[in-house]
Amino acid sequence: MGILKHVPAPAQAAGGVVNVSRRRFLQGSAGLVLGLYLAPLVLNGSRADAQEGAEADFEPNAFVRIAADGTVIVLAKHLEMGQGTYTGLATLVAEELDADWSRVRVEGAPADTERYKNLAFGLQGTGGSTAIANSYEQMRTAGATARAMLVAAAAERWGVSAEEIGVSQGVVRHEASGREAGFGELAEAAAELPVPQEVTLKDPEDFTLIGSLNTPRTDSAGKTDGSAVFTQDFTLPGMLIAVAAHPRRFGARVTSFDDTKAREVPGVVDVVQFAGGPHRFEGVAVLAENTWAASRGRDALEIEWDDSQAFSLGSDEIMARYRELAGQEGAMATQNGDVAAALAEPATLIEADYEFPYLAHAAMEPMNCLVELGDERCDIWNGEQWQSMDQQLVAQLLGIAPENVSLTQLYAGGSFGRRANPHSDFVLEAVSIAMAAREQGIEAPVKLVWMREDDTRGGYYRPMNFHRGRLALDADGQLVAWHQRLVGQSIMMGTAMESFMVENGVDATSVEGVANLAYDVPNLQVELHTPEDIGVPIQWWRSVGHTHTAFSTECLIDEAAVAAEQDPVAFRRALLSKHPRHRGVLDLVAEKAGWDQPLEPGSDGQRRGRGVAVHESFSSFVAQVAEVTVEEDGSYRVDRVVCAVDCGVAVNPDVIVAQMEGGIGFALAAALHGEITLEEGVVQQSNFNDYEVLRINEMPTVEVHIVPSTEAPTGVGEPGVPPLAPAVANALFDASGERLRKMPFPRRLPV
């Protein structure tokens, strides 16, 4: 606090800001542009022609535009999929710019890795709860640079010193003379000035937008009145809808098909067979004038499938294999001390097995993608989360240069990781269908639409996992050894990220949260088995490996506390002496939940309980206390969840609260209902009737408390998920004495 931070010249490398606008940039109006924006504008769900951009000899790194009417347009390199990224990025710019928040707008940036790379992993994309964390100084610098140029333009116009000029709410003022001008009035003049080589960022004590509770989300109005444009809304002239028939088993191929009945459906235009690949379906697609006709046509297809090379195991068989592997030594992820010796003759030994099923992402907007093919060119519109990989893989499929693949980012109706597919499966499927259509003489743009059933059965699930844990306590109840063996498919192997995420056969995302266990245990050993013969496509899911490691570790530590006859919060706290931020959220959640007070009893026959969990993921720290009621018949409900989060500087507190609330609901749905099962390789679930999401009556009361912090901001989109299930499981044990070690939880507990 109180220290002014100087940053290097913004024109340099990643994160820099360059003034490349000395020309018109938006529908004929003059203004200030920091960078170059080339993607077509999206207006009212259709394409508007892109305005000719600035000259190519200016190095672009676009984040800010200021129009002649004073509108501030922030170009977001990260996807808005409901998590509040657009609001957060705009807040950072507007804070340093001293903009009028009501005049700030956000647009998705085009695909360009060099300009818009995610500084966390060097590729353009949104994931790992990194959007605000990696953009914090970058976007603030862009805003501060624009402000400095506007001030310089005003100083030159009025013949005064820049130091005498102030900025507030989008107005530049010289108090001594009473002169003032809006951003729009100064934009053209500012665009002619050189970019300052150094700018000063605000002291946090001077923030007016960052940390404010009065900063409305930029996307709320459009999502309320229906004007927000998602892929499902977006249209192009002459566009056809494609609905594809996929095989029932992963890896099956088309032998033959009869499309006679499909072509009889009114509105159906054509039927095409499209090629698949090692990481995506092949199949047959129906092209139609509308989604209903395409869907009916797809359902009327008669297809013979070759299952000879398809995956054919069921969930029970996979889990049996995992159990067997858990009895064998695995690849070493962590080895500290002598676990074998500590486990040889413990005063108390805790042994527990945990089972985790496949989980679908189940975003409200299923996978979809709009493709327009041209000669040596491809234009794509979708909820684009993974620009670098999608652009590269589409270019490879088409045999064209990546720069000839344009990706326009629209709103996404949820993702939870699914739209950032490491193999670009549904995007390549859309392109493959468009290619097949073009070969049959159809030049129209093609929008691929997955039905809910396609989405549920489409693979790329959170991996099934099995954990075996053994903990040793000494005679004083001290935790002296922790051994954990995990079994599950690798998300990172076989992807572009394998080289820096997999080491010595260990995928870091498989063991995160346990390999770096925060609890101070003198002897810790973590091993991993990664079966490579399971043909179910898997992918990261909201909070990735933490989805299962937090559950096993926080349930195990709870068992240790009970065995040691110690309070679960006090037991954890004693083992977190080297981790003050873990302790901070644990202390706050215990205080706000009234942990030191007796839990209010239930009615006759009811048993009440509460449980706690604390976990770090994506550099954020979250602790949760769950309160439950168990009825006489063994049914139960989660009454209340108190959450404490330390995510560094709280850029948008309302967004943080919403993300914690949403993460808690998302995690509770998985704990109570979430399960994708296979029988002979066939996925059994299809829609929300058998892959259930949380119902309103199941949502508990949620209280969120944010730890005040001056640390750099960290993730909030995912960290609310991991602690919920173990907190609930520990609460159910407290109420019933029943330990839950398999997810999803049973509908009723033993009575």
Description:
With about 750 residues, the chain is α+β, with helices and mostly antiparallel strands. The chain has three domains: about 5-225, 2-Layer Sandwich (Aldehyde Oxidoreductase, domain 4), CATH 3.30.365.10; about 240-310 and about 365-450, Aldehyde oxidase/xanthine dehydrogenase, molybdopterin binding domain (Aldehyde Oxidoreductase, domain 4, 2-Layer Sandwich); about 325-360 and about 460-735, Aldehyde Oxidoreductase, domain 4 (2-Layer Sandwich). About 25% of the residues lie in helices and about 25% in strands. The protein contains 19 helices and 33 strands. Strands 14-15-12-22-19-20-21 form a seven-stranded mixed beta sheet, with helices on both faces. Strands 17-27-24-23-18 form a five-stranded mixed beta sheet. Strand 3 and strand 4 form a beta hairpin. Helix 1 runs parallel beside helix 3 (about 130-160), helix 10 (about 385-400) runs parallel beside helix 11 and helix 15 (about 545-565) packs parallel to helix 19 (about 725-735). It is globular, with a radius of gyration of 28 Å.
